[in-house]
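Board notes, transcribed. Complex of a protein with adenosine-5'-diphosphate.
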Amino acid sequence: MFKKILIANRGEIALRIIRTCKELGIKTVAVYSTADRESLHVRFADEAVCIGPPPSKDSYLNIPAIMSAVEVTAADAVHPGYGFLSENERFASICAEYGVKFIGPSPEAIAAMGDKATAKETARKAGVPVVPGSEGVLENLAQARRIASEVGYPVLLKATAGGGGKGMRVVWKPEDLEDAWNIARAEAKAAFGNDGLYLEKYIQNPRHIEVQVVGDQYGNVSHLSERDCTIQRRHQKLIEEAPSPVITPELREKIGEAAVKLAKFIRYESAGTVEFIFDQDTGEFYFMEMNTRIQVEHPVTEEIFFFDLIKEQIKVAAGVPVSGRHYFPHNLPLPRWAMEVRINAEDPYNDFRPSPGKVENFHKPGGHGVRVDSHLYAGYTIPPYYDSMVAKLIVADFSREEVINKMLRALDEFILEGPGLKTTIPILKEILQDENFRKGTYNTRFLETWRK
Ligand code: ADP
Ligand code: ADP
Ligand code: MG
């Protein structure tokens, strides 16, 4: 087992990783930017190293600074969390060159899934269903036009380097393709430095269903069933739950097997997530992308199985095999229901504008089945430089209805106040009370079409 893990991240996920390391008796090193000096991950780690000024590119994305922190502290492994360097093939290779274990998949597996058009081709070769569309990156507008008319409108233009919900454009009719093509390319170039686009059929009544997998160093891959992340704003997840209200035991078996098949095909080791789009009109599911890291919403899976995914991720990185073909008998009903809401420092009634600032009053909800993953405390100042997600509230119970009621109760207890500070709490409460949400009948456009 590792002796000392450096956590190349910040915020709630850094804290989350430190907690598991402590339970495993592993020493921890926090790294921080000057904006995060007063952060809890700095306080709770055994050692902490400042890696630069606030902008991510100078600190949490600064590979030389992080590698020198590894050297100075003699850490024998690095946990990248999510975002930042977690899906950076070069960083994973550099760790290997330094003889320090990158707690994640191999650089080759990251590369295989990094570029989305290539990932889709890989999935197709692995025999996993993919959304009808172009094979690989489009060469030109004429090709886009031809493929679009083959698969039928509406279609979606997607940036091959896209992520975080950005770099997608729906095209409803042939006349709009040229403009969309030009805009999407310019946007992709500006946001990701890569203007490669691919095209696929736009599914009009979809659920976002993803499967949690864990692979070990011996070629075994197991899955821990699905999460439903259909409640999104601009393709970014707001509420996630497990199991999915629309997945039957038969589908669970099929979609789980598809995820495992792909992970095995790329010799995936570590925790990862295979994302699918589920067409509610046809009952078909298709591969969308694979996230080669631990995800924000991993706690909902942890709560239904009472299973620490970060612990498993660290163990497989240290060479421990995954526990059997499956973690639980997939023909049995899932043991519990769990849901997570993302609490962001944003104004939900003003186009979700970021709202950083000082936290004056802070109170976490508690009680049966309630978990809060957050780095906040009273007196902490939310810096403007990073992601606006400041807390995850996760609840678990036996049924979806109990979970929704518990979530509403917990949100009522959640106090997060400061001068001018706005959060997504009020809109989350509204969504949880929505009739269609409670019935489970909606698609990824729930928020777009809400009250319109
Ligand atoms: P998950 O599937 O784990 O919910 P997200 O897509 O929400 O993942 O991404 C997790 C975090 O990673 C985001 O909160 C964001 O900070 C970061 N991230 C991922 N992709 C990008 C991107 N292309 N640009 C900027 N940030 C990104
Ligand atoms: P990202 O890397 O930004 O997470 P994804 O490919 O995972 O991008 O897509 C994000 C979201 O966009 C999905 O959860 C879904 O809501 C929507 N989406 C993606 N592909 C399609 C599609 N073909 N049809 C309809 N919606 C889609
Ligand atoms: Mg995605």
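The longest helix spans residues 249-265. The first strand starts at residue 4 and ends at 7.
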